[in-house]
Specification:
328 residues; Rossmann fold; Immunoglobulin-like; 4-stranded antiparallel β-sheet; 5 helices; 10 strands; globular
Length: 328
């Protein structure tokens, strides 16, 4: 289904709302998310009235309410259903985490309406149209990673672009980070379940205030990654070390990556095995050597004169000598 041409209904409210004077400009960014709410098919209520229509193709407008409807009363139940699935996937989610997950995973719509406060919020769609699949998937990830309840929902990390730099051949992941309350101390990334590493960004002496954004970048060499799609996870950490909600992207590896590392480990193991095998061979050989013969004392009384060979044995001796010369 193509949702790229969806528009907000003419009767739907637009933001921002009127300033309530609390000094927090985020409060005025309404709506926050959007959902389908026009011409929505609903369950028909037809129980006792003999005049009600409950058959396909018939008009249900006299049933008390029609089979289709429009308005916030139809968009809100859709969002409620997504929240119910998120709770089923991760019962320990806090309400703040659920709200932030909906906003982070929503499909962006429209240009930013107040970029000074937030670079993604739009006065028609809010932070976008809710995405049930992505919201439930992120909820499950928080449970599997034991992150539920530890997330700083005010720390914002977003990916703005992920592509190969044609000049360098590196895959560059670029994004923005900021704190809605306080600031972000660092941005980290990891490939798969690997170790966390720090992204590249400029540090500001004295830190940044709330809502002050900075750019970060992660540059990866595809030839150093294992062949195939590799998942890259990015997060921000606040001053207390609490993480933001993670964001993910995919990078296509073209090299050996972990396979080369594994090969290196195998070669080291093989070398150790061969050394042990050689040592065992020497030990076995040493055990099989006969005890040395007793050396006779060089007592002159035991020294015998050399015996002269008769003439008949000389040709044989010469032949042997000749043979030895050929071998050499």
């Amino acid at each position: 289904m193509d949702l790229s041409d969806d528009t907000v209904a003419s009767y739907s409210s637009r933001g921002e709302r009127r300033d309530n004077g609390d000094g927090n400009p985020l409060n005025e960014l309404k709506p926050e998310v959007s959902a389908p709410g026009t011409n929505i098919v609903q369950a028909e209520g037809c129980v006792t009235s003999g005049g009600c229509v409950n058959l396909a193709g018939g008009s249900a407008e006299d049933n008390g309410y029609t089979g289709r409807g429009s308005g916030t009363s139809y968009a809100t139940p859709a969002v409620s259903g997504i929240l119910a699935m998120m709770i089923e996937a991760n019962p320990d989610l806090t309400t703040a985490e659920m709200k932030e997950i909906l906003k982070l995973t929503a499909e962006r719509r429209g240009e930013p309406s107040n970029a000074a406060v937030d670079p993604f919020w739009n006065r028609d769609f809010g932070w976008g149209m809710v995405d049930a699949y992505e919201a439930v998937k992120l909820s499950m990830y928080l449970a599997e990673a034991n992150l539920t309840g530890t997330v700083d929902v005010f720390s914002q990390v977003h990916i703005s672009n992920s592509s190969v730099n044609q000049s360098t051949g590196l895959h560059e992941i670029r994004g923005l980070a900021w704190g809605q309350s306080g600031s972000i101390a660092s941005v980290e990334y990891r490939i798969g379940d690997g170790p966390w590493m720090e992204a590249t960004y400029e540090t500001v002496e004295g830190g940044l205030a709330a809502l002050e954004r900075f750019e970060w970048v992660v540059a990866l060499d595809p030839e150093q990654l294992e062949a195939g799609n590799q998942t890259v996870e990015v997060r921000g950490l606040n001053d207390q070390g609490a993480p933001s909600l993670p964001v993910f992207t995919t990078v296509m590896g073209t090299g050996g990556g972990d396979e080369l590392a594994t090969l290196g480990v195998d070669l080291v193991g093989l070398s150790v095995f061969l050394i042990v095998l050689i040592l065992l061979g020497l030990l076995v050989r040493g055990a099989q050597i006969d005890e040395p013969s007793t050396l006779h004392s060089l007592n002159p009384d035991h020294v015998e004169d050399a015996l002269l060979l008769d003439e008949q044995s000389q040709p044989e001796t010469e032949a042997k000598a000749t043979t030895k010369r050929k071998k050499s």
